[in-house]
Specification:
By secondary structure, this protein is mainly α. The chain folds into two domains: 6-104, no CATH class; 107-158, no CATH class. Helices cover 64% and strands 4% of the residues. It contains six helices and two strands, in the order ααααααββ. Strands 1-2 form a two-stranded antiparallel ribbon. Helix 1 (12-29) runs parallel beside helix 3 (60-82). The longest helix has 23 residues, at 60-82. The protein is globular. The two termini are 26 Å apart.
């Protein structure tokens, strides 16, 4: 990180963010030569830092998503493609990362839901959280289709 990136806060949060790049490259390492996976990780890291600087003006609400999930995924995908990896395979590597990331939270969430009797409240809590976190101020637009019973649904119409 030789560039001056202090205004985009690449501290502990930065280490968490880089997990996507490192882990997706580790998954790719199973298919690629180790040196190529390492080169991809280094290139993606450099591009990610450039992207943070280019988008340092993003609002705090938007950065919550772009800096942590969207930009690292875009950078990883673009870097995989630039190294000759088929687009479908690049998407698969990134998807595998997000699936493993989400799976690590499932046992904890299930336990919290059980402890606090939240099963019937989860759809409403999910919608409240989603609408608050993905509201117009963050650049997202969505539609809320009709639901039946204890459901939560929305269609993302526009992402920043």
């Amino acid at each position: 990180m030789g560039r001056n990136t202090e205004h985009v806060h690449l501290t502990a949060e930065g280490r968490i963010i880089q997990r996507l790049i490192r882990t997706s490259c580790a998954i790719a390492n199973e298919d690629l030569v180790k040196e190529k996976a390492g080169r991809i990780a280094e290139t993606a890291q450099r591009r990610y830092e450039e992207l943070l600087i280019e988008n340092a003006h993003d609002s705090k609400a938007l950065r919550k998503y772009t800096f942590r999930r969207i930009y690292p995924a875009i950078v990883a995908y673009e870097t995989f493609k630039s190294e000759g990896i088929e687009p479908e395979k690049a998407v698969w590597y990134i998807r595998e990362y997000f699936q493993s990331f989400a799976a690590s939270s499932v046992p904890h969430l299930k336990q919290v839901i059980r402890w606090f009797g939240l099963a019937k409240k989860v759809p409403k809590l999910f919608m409240d959280f989603s609408l608050k976190g993905f509201g117009p101020e963050t650049g997202f637009e969505f539609e809320s289709p009709e639901t039946k019973g204890n459901e939560a649904r929305f269609n993302m119409v526009r992402c920043p």
